[in-house]
Amino acid sequence: MRRLVGDPCHLDGLVKCEKWIRDDDEKRSEESKTGWWLNRLIVQKKEVNFDWPFPFVEGRLFVLTLSAGLEGYHVSVDGRHVTSFPYRTGFVLEDATGLFLNGDLDVHSVFAGSLPTTHPSFAPQNYLDFSTVWQAPPLPDEPVEIFIGILSSANHFAERMGVRKTWMSAVRKSPNMVARFFVALHGRMEVNVELKKEAEFFGDIVFVPFLDNYDLVVMKTLAICDYGVNVVSAKYVMKCDDDTFVRLDSVVAEIKKVPSGRSLYMGSMNIQHKPLRNGKWAVTYEEWPQEVYPAYANGPGYVLSSDIVKFIMSEFTKQGLTLFKMEDVSMGLWVERFNRTIPVEYIHSSKFCPYGCTDDYYTAHYQSPRLMLCLWQKLLEGRPGCCNVR
């Protein structure tokens, strides 16, 4: 049995983080460390001993407190600080849509204090529970003008609710638009069980039949293309992420500026973009030997005409597509190939903002559910603009 030891970092008298290491870490390669962490995350096969006593005693009541501090969440039991963990990027406590406890625990009562005063103006039960208001209508019998495919992860319920309660409301009210979330399976069965319930209730989730993995995001994009032309027969297909706020009226207005029948590829374009060879997003020469990528639109939000999408699906069926792990670069590669025979109207606009929000945006990326609600409220009030709420 290997022992885990804590190496705590302190901030304002509280433990800011806990860096877990193994006794024999010094003797092990970086590769084996990574494999061990993956095994820990996916399934814990061996019992692990910790070197501090947890302040829980079977059969005795205790008070667990979760508080949000400057650097992250802090957990205390009976006034004793136990652990902390950092905020996930773009997520704050106010964005939570529920609280779940796993384990052999009997909860006697729950109290909430210091809740934000600017909480969304929905009835609490509607914010926390499923509501028929957010259910997707049946698919229209006729072809639609635009289909929006939204990449999402299985455990991103809060992000999907943020989309459903905001800009997707405009989609539900239009007979010429359809939007769906595209989600792969999670490594934990309980997450998939909850996801299945969500999908059955809201009717707006399309399952992609593989375990979620960054390198397979390109397959989700192909699923969006397939749905857009073979299920709803859309004239245009838009791809975005679940943390992207889409200002649909502006996007549609921009599309209408292009003469009907033109092959269209619209978004925030990257021209002569070079692959990163080092760091977290490094691409090896074996993966991409060329010095630059083809022109491609940033992944958080772009639009394609249906003729390009049909070509992509035809080539995929014939196993003629080159699949690259970066889905937006893959799309640029496919459009470039289409452009060799039929001219494509490449339209760049920085208003398809991949790095956050910009004035008079078409899409805004990295928007938490709370920010989406703020953006939506501003749109409803006729004063669209970015929200920089803290």
Automatic annotation (TrEMBL):
Galectin domain ranges (all copies): 1-113
Name the domain of life.
Eukaryota
For the protein in the UniProt heading, the enzyme class is transferase
Q: Does the keyword Isomerase apply?
A: no
The alphabetical list of record keywords is: Glycoprotein, Glycosyltransferase, Golgi apparatus, Manganese, Membrane, Signal-anchor, Transferase, Transmembrane, Transmembrane helix
Which GO BP terms apply? arabinogalactan protein metabolic process
Please tell me whether the keyword Transferase is annotated for this protein: yes
Give cofactor(s), names only: Mn(2+)
Q: How does it sit in the membrane?
A: Single-pass type II membrane protein
Q: Extract one GO molecular function annotation from the record.
A: hydroxyproline O-galactosyltransferase activity
The EC number on file is 2.4.1.-
**UniProt record similarity statement:** Belongs to the glycosyltransferase 31 family.
Annotated function:
Possesses hydroxyproline O-galactosyltransferase activity. Transfers galactose from UDP-galactose to hydroxyproline residues in the arabinogalactan proteins (AGPs). Is specific for AGPs containing non-contiguous peptidyl hydroxyproline residues. Utilizes UDP-galactose solely as sugar donor. The addition of galactose onto the peptidyl hydroxyproline residues in AGP core proteins represents the first committed step in arabinogalactan polysaccharide addition. AGP glycans play essential roles in both vegetative and reproductive plant growth.
Q: What is this protein called?
A: Hexosyltransferase
Q: Which organism is it from?
A: Urochloa decumbens
